Amino acid sequence: MDKYKIIEGGVCAAKGFLASGVYCGIKKSIIPNGNESPVSNKKNDIGMIVAENLCNTACVYTQNKVKGAPILVTKKNLEITGGKSKAVIVNSKNANTCNPDGEEKAKKMCQLTANALGIKPEEVIVASTGVIGQVLPIEPIEEGIPRLVEKLGKNNLEVATAIMTTDTFSKEYAVEFEIGGNLCKIGGMAKGSGMIHPNMATTLNFLTTDCAISIKMLQKALNEIVKITYNCLSVDGDTSTNDMVSIMSSGMAGNDEIVEENKDYEIFKDALYQVMKNLTIMLAKDGEGATKLLTCKCFNAPSLDTGIVVAKSVICSPLVKCAMYGADANFGRILCAIGYSEAELDVTKIDISLVSKAGEIQVCKDGCGVEFSEELAKKVLSEDEIEILVNLNQGGSKACAWGCDLTYDYVKINGDYRS
Fold it and tell me: Of 121, 139, 166, 296, whose CB count within 10 A is highest?
């Protein structure tokens, strides 16, 4: 088989995991006369993932000082269990953040889930996404959880839909690979369209694997891959209060448990990268109001960290994002974004090119503009996927960052988000 084979199943692809999603009416309870259409109002708004056994678990959380109550409760739960979990309960429409009863409600969600599954409440990962600062109604959740348990199955799409907010499509990815002759799988799902500028993870992301790996090595792998995937994504420069990525390992693949950095660990980490990178790209492509996926590839950097800083600075620039929306090959905005980054660089060595399926055009050489065809540039930048290639010519490291263009629709979406 190929080293990493793309498979179906998302968060349910790995052995030992079931999921479900239902509509329980969370937003209707908050804003009875909200502007949601009858169709969107019935979209799944609560989801569940359940493991057959107690799983080794790793998480990374937002570094925003304002943290959602679910994150605080999940961290405490994993401290109690020593990094073990058996279920995830997650809702959309309401972030359960900045509320005086937030932790109480998050704990209640864990208790309701535990009661329905016959497990301990501290074995539950709880997460919420949606509007900040509105009290989370527990009644619809209390009614929805038993229905989630009844519907448990390989329902990856149902749970992936349940975590969507302004997303225009659900985001799933899974791969299979071999370790020691045993077939292993990693799958996951993500949500996110706006308020995406993480400094740890991105929005809500749930990953599962049947590869046997210790908690310590699972956390190490997650930290390393978050750095070069989710941490290299930006849609609008706003780091959410509820960002979290979690990964649960059922250990049911039959491989010897990975307990140290060896060949098996590298295979697992590379597989995790395949899943998380592709989810990152999906999140960037579905940015609120976006019409173009932007990828900045930084080559020949002095170090990985320098490459990341440069690539992210370009992707985060509002002026670069607007130029890409308008198909304007304004390389000065790109060079400017590199210049105000915290990277120590010789700007006189930088080359910049713009690439899409319509062709490639160099716009900067040795830190200065070069002549190019405006007509060809317009064609290159009119495609829906654009690569910004930055050659620093100052080392051997490389990095990549992902984002999207900035459009009128982004403002329209966020102008009336609460309604």
Answer: 296
pLDDT per residue as tens digits for the range 249-304:
999 999 999 999 999 999 999 999 999 999 999 988 887 778 999 999 999 999 99
C-alpha span between 380 and 357 (Å, rounded): 7
Return the CATH number of the domain spanning residue range 293-415.
3.10.20.340
- Do 78 and 60 touch, CB atoms closer than 8 A? no
- Within the chain, all domains assigned CATH 3.60.70.12 are found at 5-285
C-beta atoms surrounding 121 within 10 Å: 19
Q: Which of 316, 250, 245 is nearest to 287 (CA)?
A: 316
Q: Which class in CATH covers the domain with range 5-285? A: alpha beta
Write the CA distances from 276 to 39, 173, 264, 412, integer angstroms: 31, 8, 18, 29
Cα distance between residue 322 and residue 339, in whole Å:
18
User: Which residues belong to CATH 3.10.20.340 in the chain?
Assistant: 293-415
